[in-house]
Design brief:
437 residues, alpha/beta, Rossmann fold, 2 domains, 6-stranded mixed β-sheet, 4-stranded antiparallel β-sheet, 15 helices, 16 strands, 41% helix
Length: 437
């Protein structure tokens, strides 16, 4: 399906950046920073990264649905200034009009373009047939399954015969089996040349899905989104998930996304910033303890391959990485080359009882999380041993967005209460030392 190397790219993304958040003249949060890439004819390219890395934002900019703060997108030599004729998009949500039939939903884009009724009907029926919905033309969205509704979304995008199909995590809202069936059917249509499109640009946070579908994978780091790596997938279709080359590539991408850093630092994209500027994810202490127990037990015995662990726990990278990276931050585990390995402290945690675990967790929280240190020090120094949450939230907002500040404070509050470093009154929104000794 790939075009010749001499053919000009269908699409060029040139030094694109984007900011969101502040409106009072201040610069907002940098979401994308200096993204440069291109899309060639005849290839499927995946944008791979975790939530918050700007994948969907970049796709919306490519589609002309949002304008970048800097840089530009060029489609067939022309700068993208708005929605482009020749580029269609399939969204994560089905985004169907519930009062319209399958056929009417698919026809909608053509009718908006002024295509005559008879021609629109013919092309819509053809798209419905290609995508495997023949016989359901007169059904309404509420009468068909989620997988079939997403097929309508694909048919609606294909019916306008775009050169580029953009897909924003189109399988993530489906159950595992339905997603696998739709993914396989779509790949079959692509390989057989039965889809009226020249290239596909898709967003995913699923590493195996990217390796299964894509000719090229662009890995984005987070906070802000930058291109961290670009990987060519030279595996013939259909691809076998159990093939050693397939597994090796999956392992390689996991290793790229969990590169070892200096002990005193945290991998960029995991916990952006240093000191109080370290934004933290929402991870429960039960989940952290459960991960330690899982890795400590057979067959892992203290060291696990992250892809294998993701499979056994049925976790996507958006769920797995924050847990593993929090354990790394707290020095209960180390991440390197796509593996997670418990430290001596992590192994000790797995062996301890409940009270001893809390004490060890609290000690590590004080040692390695500056915000926890700050809260405890302020409480120790104040005669009342009380402090409002706003005091720390406002301080965090000097380093990060309000959303990140709120998430970070909630995480440290949960972790600190578990480690018995301080108490927190939800109604008063205040910290205290009423319970801890």
């Amino acid at each position: 399906m790939l075009a010749s190397a001499s053919a000009p790219p269908l699409l060029e993304i040139r030094d694109v950046s984007q900011r969101y958040g502040k409106t009072s003249g201040e610069k907002g949060l940098l979401v994308l920073d200096g993204v440069t890439m291109q899309l060639e004819e005849g290839e499927i390219v995946g944008l791979l990264g975790r939530s918050g890395c700007g994948k969907s934002t970049l796709l919306r900019i490519v589609a002309g649905l949002a304008r970048p703060a800097g840089g530009e997108v060029v489609y067939r030599g022309a700068k993208v200034e708005g929605p482009v004729d020749g580029v269609a998009m399939v969204f994560q949500s089905f985004a169907l009009f519930p009062w319209l039939s399958v056929l009417a939903n698919v026809e909608l884009g053509l009718r908006a373009k002024g295509v005559r009724e008879a021609e629109a009907r013919r092309r819509a029926l053809q798209a419905i047939d290609i995508i495997g919905l023949d016989g359901f033309e007169n059904a309404y969205p509420k009468e068909i399954s989620g997988g079939m509704r997403q097929r309508v979304g694909f048919a609606r995008a294909l019916v306008v015969a775009p050169n580029i199909l953009l897909m924003d995590e189109p399988f993530s809202a489906l159950d595992v089996l339905t997603a696998e069936t739709l993914r396989t059917d779509l790949l079959d249509l692509w390989v057989e040349g039965r889809m009226p499109i020249r290239s596909i640009l898709m967003v995913t946070h699923n590493i195996e899905e990217a390796v299964l579908m894509c000719d090229r994978i662009v890995v984005l780091s987070s906070n802000p989104g930058r291109i961290a790596a670009e990987i060519r997938v030279d595996l013939a279709h259909p691809r076998n998930r159990l093939d050693p080359e397939f597994r090796q590539l999956v392992d390689h991408i996991y290793a790229l996304m969990t590169q070892r850093t200096e002990p005193a630092k945290v991998r960029e994209g995991a916990f952006p910033g240093t000191g109080l500027g370290m934004a933290l994810p929402t991870v429960s202490t039960n989940t952290l303890a459960g991960m330690i127990e899982e890795v400590a037990a057979p067959p892992y015995d203290g060291k696990a391959d992250l892809p294998a662990l993701a499979d056994s726990l049925q976790l996507e990278i958006d769920d797995l990485f924050p847990v593993a990276e929090t354990l790394q931050l707290l020095r209960f585990a180390e991440l390197a080359e796509g593996d997670i390995k418990l430290t001596p402290a992590g192994k000790r945690f797995a062996e301890l009882g409940v009270d001893q675990r809390k004490k060890l967790f609290g000690d590590h929280l004080l040692a390695y999380v500056p915000l926890a240190q700050r809260i405890r020090r302020v409480l120790d120094e104040r005669p009342s041993h009380h402090a409002p949450a706003t005091r720390f939230r406002e301080e965090l907002e000097d380093y990060m967005s309000e959303e990140y500040a709120e998430t970070t404070l909630k995480s440290v509050t949960t972790w600190g209460r578990y480690g018995e470093l301080f108490a927190y009154d939800e109604s008063a929104q205040a910290f205290s030392l009423e319970n801890p000794q």
